[in-house]
Amino acid sequence: MFPRNQWYVAGLSSELQDKPVARTLLGKPVVLFRGPSGEAAALEDRCCHRQLPLSYGTLEDGGIRCGYHGLLFGPDGKCLEIPGQEKIPSKAFVKPYIVQERNQIVWIWIGQTDDTAPDCEPPEYAVHDNPKYQFKGGLFHYEAPYQLIHDNLLDLSHLGYVHLKTIGGNARLHMSAPTRVEGEGDTVRVVRWMKESAPPPTYTAAWPYKGLIDRWQEIEFNLSYLAIWTGATDAGTEDLADPARGGFHMRGFHGITPETETTSHYFWTIASNSHPDCDDNFPTVYEQTKNTFAEDKVIIEAQYKNMLQFDNPACVDIHVDAGANRARRIITRLNLQTLEQVAAE
């Protein structure tokens, strides 16, 4: 069960090149590609002739050609050509999905039914278009349910224990950092400040701090993605409540899309700024961020494997779980809405 009538992340724009991209999203096999005008397109990943995944095919100017008998399909799912056959049956059609690209992210609309049209535009993530930042991203595939990834990202107290070589820092300081959790509608916001703390390795490699730092973590949860802004200034030099504060910034985009009930796609990017008096630090920031997320993957997959081994025992909540628990309540409510809509049909 997943919330419907939502935009989910299907991929990053940089993934759609000269080959089809096969992906299962919310249990639905989809093939992603670019159409004749360069627009992102998505079809059900099967040829209507003999059911071979269209992702086994090739891309042409007109669309995607099946790799079995050569049927050509346009971005709208209509069959455009059957080699050796002049007449194209009206049933030669593949289900299309509504996709849009925004800020170099590919979004797919998953409606309650095939006829449910979007009632809003895909989310905006303007960081990708901000000249202040460089950004780059990637994809992790998780053998774990998507809400475990939400839990991890909404609770950054784990940094001091899991990410000692990159963005970690003092573990006890992370666990005791003043934390504010707020919510409105389907959004959760978590803000944590760690003043006068020692900079972790990623920060010292990227910015010429003079000593201790004032560090912030701002997390915004939305159903299909999280936006996380972290960074630091030299201790005592700036107001951490000022949205225009300086210092070193790391802005992370985290698109969490269920593949199945027990597996997930994690689309991520990291954006950061460089100090004007230092060499470009972004390659270091990117590599250390990638390593950080790989460490999270190991932890979360081991966590889920152990949950299955012990038959999903009850968990004991502690003070750092407030944001994650609020997000879970939102998803529970949205899933109930989906069930009510199905029952009403």
From TrEMBL:
Domain of life: Bacteria
Pfam families in alphabetical order: Rieske, VanA_C
Keyword Metal-binding: yes
UniProt cross-references to Gene3D superfamilies, sorted A to Z: Naphthalene 1,2-dioxygenase Alpha Subunit, Chain A, domain 1, Rieske [2Fe-2S] iron-sulphur domain
Organism lineage: Bacteria, Pseudomonadati, Pseudomonadota, Betaproteobacteria, Burkholderiales
Ranges for domain Rieske: 7-108
Keywords attached to this entry: 2Fe-2S, Iron, Iron-sulfur, Metal-binding, Methyltransferase, Monooxygenase, Oxidoreductase, Transferase
Entries under PROSITE patterns matching the protein: RIESKE
Annotated CDD domains: RHO_alpha_C_DMO-like
Protein name: Vanillate O-demethylase monooxygenase subunit
GO biological process: methylation
InterPro entries: Cholesterol_7-desaturase, Rieske_2Fe-2S, Rieske_2Fe-2S_sf, VanA_C_cat
Annotated GO MF terms: 2 iron, 2 sulfur cluster binding; metal ion binding; methyltransferase activity; monooxygenase activity
